[in-house]
Amino acid sequence: MATEQRTRDGGDATTGPVTLVVRWMENLSETQFAYLLLTPALLLLAVIALWPLLSTFEMSLHADSLSGGVGELYSIDELFANYYDVITGKRNALMPSPFLPTELSLNAIFASALGVTLVFTLVSVFFETIVGFGQALVLNQDFRGRRWVRVAIIIPWAVPIVIQGMIFYLMFQPGIGLFVGQEGNPALLQQLGLIGGTPLADAQDATMIIIVADIWKTTAFMALLILAGLQSVDRNLYDVARVAGASKWQAFKKITLPIVLPTVLVAMLFRTIQAMRVYGIIETMAGCEVVPSLSCLVITSFDNTLNATAATVAFITAGIIAIVVSVYIVKYARDEMG
Amino acid sequence: MGVVNRTLDMVREDDSHESTRNVNRRDFVKAAGATGTAVGLAGCIGGGGGGSSPTSTTGGDTGTVTGPTTIQLAADDNFKGKQQGINDLLHENGVSDDISIEILGGSFVSSGRQSKYKNILNAGQTKPTIFMMDNGWTIPFIVRDQIANLSQELSSDVVSTVKEDYVDTMVATASMDGDLYGIPLFADFPTMQYRKDLLREAGYSDSDFDTWATESMTWQKFSNVVADAKEAHPDMTGYNFQGAAYIGLSCCDFVEFMSSWGGSYFGEFDNLFGPVGDRPITVDEQPVVDAINMVRHFIYGENPGGKFGDYAGNISPEAVVQYKEESSRKPFANGNVLFHRNWPYSIKISGAEDAFGTDLGAMPIPYGVEASSSDYGPEIGGIPSALGGWHLTLNPNAPADKKAAGREVLSALTNKNVQMGLFELGGWTPPVPSRINSSRAQDLDLIGRYVDTLAVASKNAVPRPVTRVWPQEAQQINKEVNAAFKRDKSASKAVSDLKAALEQIEESV
Known about the structure:
The complex is a heterodimer. Chain A is built from 15 helices and two strands.
């Protein structure tokens, strides 16, 4: 304010601070200017994303303290004791579920946080991509009532996770749900041997049901993202393909897929990150005791005042997600360059 | 990097259309400067306003209630629903009219409220003044030094009344080193609830029901009664309870099965509350294995170990391994189950006129061995009943005047009329044995019919072994016991795994 006043009063217009700043900015190169404009966003990111991450890391270097907060910082030669204990299973008795499987068996994999999270992520993202792609291809066609079908497909995605969890919980609750029969009168899925008598208490059954619930809900998300990619394909290319005598499959392989692939990769990236963090649907359907995902492990450890252990698992989880994400980013970069 | 590069590409692209660029850098700086100034000024005004607001009204640090004071009490939604009634009750019984209580509702899921209170107290918040805490997790708050020591806050009369008259196992869950940190608000005792109408059809009579109401039977007799009743009603489920892998299994259902056979997690009763790391771990003893095998016999009729030949098997549905309180109560309330183990709230629902009414019967939980033949008797063994219930505790960070009001309310809870009033108002069982089946309690609507059974249960209440490592231990217990119930492991394998885990936990402290 004061500066402007002075300028207007005929003060030294060539050396005022605002003028100096403007002149400095005008002399920046385009690259420098771009970074300058990005600075506030990057600062914000550092404060709300980077700082908590570093703080979590710092917490994970302390000992647990059952009386609250965290214990003492480990000495330098055993700085990573928490990581060592969590990964080697030395802390299994204190944690609600082991981080890695304790042995090589299906039961042990489904009882461990990393095992069950990876199974969930791989299976759910795979099916969501396939089904979502199919839905997107159908929605990309011209037919009467297409708008309504689009709305119908997105409805599951709009259902809140807790409500969805309750719906599936009730469907598989003995004595209430339609998918679980009495001992003498099993329901269809039980006759087929797909689920047992108490699916939500069994780690494998419950994981499978949670995967189905997740596919039901988030396929719509995949379909919408992929549909957006499909819409950007130039229709003229198909005409050229037809004239050149290409079959439908060839047209899909040579035109649709290469153009849509980057979009599919981005959609899969989003879904993978979300799937690695799965928590809400587990907690409302089967409980973290039955399906102990990585996020479950963080939260249950934290609730048990194992704050440093919780921070350790959280940081490892972030690291694993970062690795998975970088796989996509490398692939994406290659696609873009290629 | 990819994102940055693309942004730069866009900048370059913009550059090539110099004539179409609407905002030049000079304008941008002006706009940004003006916005920044505006935000700065707004922030300044906001901050100034905040700073000058009269927040420091708690100046009179006299520790007495000098004017109208409202204190907050964090409880559950049932209590919130009776806020007016509870205020009236307290005012009629000596609490100053100046004090009013605002009751905050909360989740019925005990662990949800535990984490919430932990966060509030960790942050040193001054509100609420009083917390309602589960007897299963009050001790960890005491260990963390987060709640007020009532032996110092309340008069010695009140403290000695609590120590002498109340259910002593419950007082133990709110005490440490002889000091009292919580006033028991109400107690909860499980019972076996059943359908008299259907049992009459199976040949049992009202005189049987009268006997059962106060005299516990053995598991052997019980299983055969259930089997008889099931024979008369083949479409119905015999007996259900809560066997899911959750805190309710470790604190309650399994404590009952185990102690009914004379088994214990940590040997003698005196070891239940510590010292952690310096007490025997006795979960792998025979009574504990027997308890698991009996349950498996009830579910699958397989009689592992051959001990239960004259016990009826197949009386419980496989679904018990997935059941918690509500999921097991609903089939019972729907009329599909003959016998059901649950807390008194279920009696209130199923015993209502529009439900089963007087056809609802209740009896103490059956037992395996007499208390006298238990290694850890007389407290452990014989008729088992897990101890449930809640304490009221005081927030040490509350302002002095609120704390004074809180002290007045806590002291009033030891008043007989307040306890009986709460029993009448919401069915909250007094934590004082002599009052549970007093003549005034017998006259109560509905719950009055069952107070004799509750009184028997109160005399045999076994608390869970709450220490600072109990949350971790409970988790391992429910995991292993549930696995054995599901037949993922044999009983002996489950208890030896459990013992190893418990040893590791005990040594970690």
